[in-house]
Amino acid sequence: MAEVLELELATYKRLLPSLLKDEGKYAVIKGEALIGIFDSYSDALAEGYKVAKLKPFLVKKIAATETVAYFSRDVDSACITAS
Amino acid sequence: MHYSVLIAPQGPLVAVHVGVSAQRHAALTQAGQPVPAPILANLLLDTGASCTSIDASVIAQLGLQPTGTQGILTPSTGATPHQCSTYDVSLMIPGATPQKIIPAIAIIDGNYLSQGHHGLIGRDALRDARVVYSGPDGYVMLSF
User: What is the dihedral of CA B75, B113, B86, B70, to 10 degrees?
Assistant: First the structure.
């Protein structure tokens, strides 16, 4: 499933050094283009759907180090890769 | 608002309407496409989960595509996080007035049906909640 966002993730990684001045905010990326940077997840999502409509786009919290979610049980999610 | 849920054998299960996010709802409407009806899901209240996770079958019924990624650590991953897709959904806890509504939240998929529920309510959805676990009385009280 996440292959859908492969290009967007590559774009995020490429842009990350310049995005870090806005660490903690949310970047919206479609393809190789940065749509914008937003203070909240909701605003980022709204802009993503406004610009990309129902096509794939990525909302990513800008962070020098990826934040991790913790689960005390196995989730059995369709994991993309081990990072 | 307060909710009381009985502690089932699986744990405290909360009935939650899982729907497309408000933002996706607007995009579907604008595109003239039907908006999937919210799905009533039994979610396990899990303070050991930092984010909410919902069974892949529910995500498929809502016709969602990933809009993000999230690294996760579980007992099986060891110290290396696995990258998972995230999906934007809305959550609504019915049965009380006013209802608790989260218009947009990023969740990850999982497989839970064999455990008798549809997923986990994590601490992200509980950010504004107070939770009282009353083992002797057999219920959990949740207030927002």
Answer: 0
- What pTM was computed for the model? 0.93
Residues 6+ apart with CB under 8 A from B13: B5, B6, B42, B43, B44, B45, B117
pLDDT digits (tens, 9 = 90+) for B86-139: 999 999 987 766 788 999 999 999 999 999 999 999 999 999 999 999 999 999
Phi and psi, residue A44, nearest 5°: -65, -45
User: B111: Cβ–Cβ under 8 A, 6 or more apart, which residues?
Assistant: A76, B55, B56
Cβ pair A49, B24 in contact under 8 A: yes
Q: What backbone torsions phi and psi does residue A8 show, to the nearest 5 degrees? A: -65, -40
Facing residue for A83 by CB, picked from B46, B49, B80? B80
Between chains, do B106 and A59 touch, taking CB under 8 Å as contact? yes
ipTM of model: 0.90
Map tokens 């990309």 to a residue. Answer: A52
Nearest CA in chain B to A60: B68
Whole-angstrom distance, CA of residue B104 vs CA of residue B20: 8
Cβ separation B48–A70 shorter than 8 A: yes
